[in-house]
Amino acid sequence: MTDLIHDPKGGMPRLLEIMRRLRDPDTGCPWDLEQDFASVAPYTIEEAYEVADAIEREAWDELKGELGDLLFQSVFHAQMADEKGLFDFNAVADTMSDKMVARHPHVFGDESREKSADQQTVDWEVIKAQERAAKQQDGVLDGVAMGLPALMRAVKLQKRAARVGFDWPSSDDVMDKLHEELDEIRQAENRDEQFEEFGDMLFVVANLARHLDIDPEAALRAANAKFTRRFGFIEQELAKENRAPKDSNLTEMDRLWDAAKVQEKAQKNLKE
């Protein structure tokens, strides 16, 4: 196996053997041996977001490495499951293959491919509902993973409820509800009430995003990137005078923020 571990073209067998060696009770890595499903899970989530970040930035030179990091997380979990006699990596791959074949009868079965992508999405949801029923997940909201980011889970919960008619008729109704929630935050009399009303407001914001057909996670990531970019401009401009933000004031930094917006708009117009 030593030759396989050092074989640059070893592919999946090489990665699986490296993971097995890392978890070897006698010769493995102490850190890897200390891990369990719960301790590795946050790294798995982080790696998924780093894949999304590379794609969003179109950093194609980084994407291969980020996908590898995410794949390693699956390998790590599968190795720990194998050690407990639950399943191995091949079972994971087979389960995924079975699922994809079952969910694509228009590709792997006898159903016609002559339907729109929207219709295929509807059919996909029907098949998923059948799978949940087979698992005795009969509740409308059953099966929406608890470990999802809260904003993403809110949208998924709302989509499920909307399928059975529990939904606002239009985005205008959701906006009215958002104003109502903002008023309730203003009227909150203590920290507990503020906490609850703030959560309600975020839930309505997620609902508004769904009605506007906007991915709220992607929108917030874009807003984060914009804030980082514009604040970086402020730092760069102040650095020209050997100053930092702590040496400035809100009025000056607001002015520089507006200058950053003007610069971005000009750059956007040039690209167009």
Describe the structure.
- It is a single chain.
- By secondary structure, the chain is mostly helical.
- The protein folds into 3 domains: 2-101, MazG-like (Helix Hairpins, Orthogonal Bundle), CATH 1.10.287.1080; 139-214, MazG-like (Helix Hairpins, Orthogonal Bundle); 217-271.
- It is built from 13 helices and no strands.
- The chain has helices at residues 2-5, 11-22, 30-34, 37-56, 60-83, 89-103, 105-108, 117-134, 150-163, 171-187, 191-211, 216-239, 250-271.
- The radius of gyration is 25 Å and the shape is globular.
- The termini are far apart.
- The model has no long low-confidence stretch (mean pLDDT 90).
- GO terms for molecular function: ATP diphosphatase activity.
- It comes from Sagittula marina.
- Belongs to the nucleoside triphosphate pyrophosphohydrolase family.
Q: Which class of secondary structure composition applies to the elements? A: mainly alpha
Q: What global shape is seen?
A: globular
- Poorly predicted sequence stretches spanning 5 or more consecutive residues: none
The Cα radius of gyration reads 25 Å
CATH topology of the largest domain: Helix Hairpins
* Helical amount: over 70%
Q: Look at the structure and give the CATH class of the largest domain.
A: Mainly Alpha
> For this structure, what is the CATH homologous superfamily of the largest domain?
MazG-like
**Terminal-residue CA separation:** 55 Å
Largest sheet: none
CATH architecture of the largest domain: Orthogonal Bundle
Portion of residues in beta strands equals under 5%
Q: How would you spell out the order of helices and strands? A: HHHHHHHHHHHHH
How many domains in all? 3
Put simply, the count of helices is 13
Say how many strands there are. 0
